[in-house]
Amino acid sequence: xxxxxxxxxxxxxxxxxxxxxxxxxxxxxxxxxxxxxxxxxxxxxxxxxxxxxxxxxxxxxxxxxxxxxxxxxxxxxxxxxxxxxxxxxxxxxxxxxxxxxxxxxxxxxxxxxxxxxxxxxxxxxxxxxxxxxxxxxxxxxxxxxxxxxxxxxxxxxxxxxxxxxxxxxxxxxxxxxxxxxxxxxxxxxxxxxxxxxxxxxxxxxxxxxxxxxxxxxxxxxxxxxxxxxxxxxxxxxxxxxxxxxxxxxxxxxxxxxxxxxxxxxxxxxxxxxxxxxxxxxxxxxxxxxxxxxxxxxxxxxxxxxxxxxxxxxxxxxxxxxxxxxxxxxxxxxxxxxxxxxxxxxxxxxxxxxxxxxxxxxxxxxxxxxxxxxxxxxxxxxxxxxxxxxxxxxxxxxxxxxxxxxxxxxxxxxxxxxxxxxxxxxxxxxxxxxxxxxxxxxxxxxxxxxxxxxxxxxxxxxxxxxxxxxxxxxxxxxxxxxxxxxxxxxxxxxxxxxxxxxxxxxxxxxxxxxxxxxxxxxxxxxxxxxxxxxxxxxxxxxxxxxxxxxxxxxxxxxxxxxxxxxxxxxxxxxxxxxxxxxxxxxxxxxxxxxxxxxx
Length: 598
Description:
Structural class: alpha+beta
């Protein structure tokens, strides 16, 4: 009984956790570092929380207004409601096909749909190679002028490679009168210009001007090694629209050393406008919002209220936003949390937002007025000073019914106590998904208990008593029966069939079914030995590359065909590597702490 109750409890707990995870699963789309103009690239992240999906999202609607440069997938763990859940993300590198008002449409993953995202893309020079050489370098200033002294100006350095460089390194941008800080990591993607395919490497920087006037970003040097090849190999690769591979020259040599330079770029920095004092915020649009945890007109002495202020600025960076500090007011104590400005889309264009939570505690009864919140800013579109403002807020503070903080005595028995009023949270009905999940859990638990009870009864009646052994049994004490040991049934463990799984991989590769080949490989990996329990791990580099390629194919959608010959060849090498015994490491002695000089 104890074991059955424990098993039932563990099953119920696991089922409840599964139901919670299923409810937490959601599909959403977010934009990281939104584009500033048509020549800028950005990343669209499609994430699903609480589960994974072998089938990728449907990204075909993106082709209308965006060019998909690169795609990938990553996984991480995130804390949700006090517990860790798995988050799987598909990362797309996109480039706008045109300027103007663009919309990332609603994308689907199974039965789930993401919300559309609107953005405004300013006209700009499309990022293209500056020349037709085998390797080129460009430096571009993103954003729309004018730029002011305290601005943060994004600068991007791009390397265009169409011959497969063996190695390359570029200098960091530099300018007299400005500093540069790396912003993010390297981004790599492929793109076709004309009839040539280029490998593009992109690195962003933040330029902070230290003076006004014209600042020139000096020429940036790129040093690279490009492969050598026999005559005609480069022309043949270009005719096919592909970069020349390093092995066309007969081996992996050091290549030919080349150095290319990017053209210098000039940026005009304007001074602070005359008459502007205090915090200077150049922007295109500024908006202030506020929310309260409860109505200010129903405030009470000693009862805390939470006031949330949100500042949304279009055309500015997070470092340019002013702090939102509450003004000291007689009759209240205010405590502001630390604010964390961040980059975001504001009105469909790049900008920044800042949010601060302020705890307001009235200290006396009566009418208390909190002053207006103002944020002065400079409108770069109209070239004039403006102010974003929230009106004053009046608190009608009632006196505390219990100044000492004690609970009032109960009402006399003769008078009926008033019924407690239900709060909106109490009256609100449960969401239909919660009701459905609870009903599903109850039905499954009840079915499991009923099935377990019947099975236990049949098992108890079907198990025979063990025969008496000829050996001497312990003498039975008077009044106590002789103890007997019930028979124990051990579950039969069926070993996975490695040959059947390998045959399934071969069949799927010959038929060109990428999904079936990937699943069959997971089954074979589970059967091939310990340490590979059904995961997409590989023992050989060829298998790792084949798994990466089939994953990219599955993510590309149904419009692409898959040739399983490469996967089949890599799988054959993987099977041979699985048969080789692992070599035990030989123990080595510790190196002397103070070795003697020879």
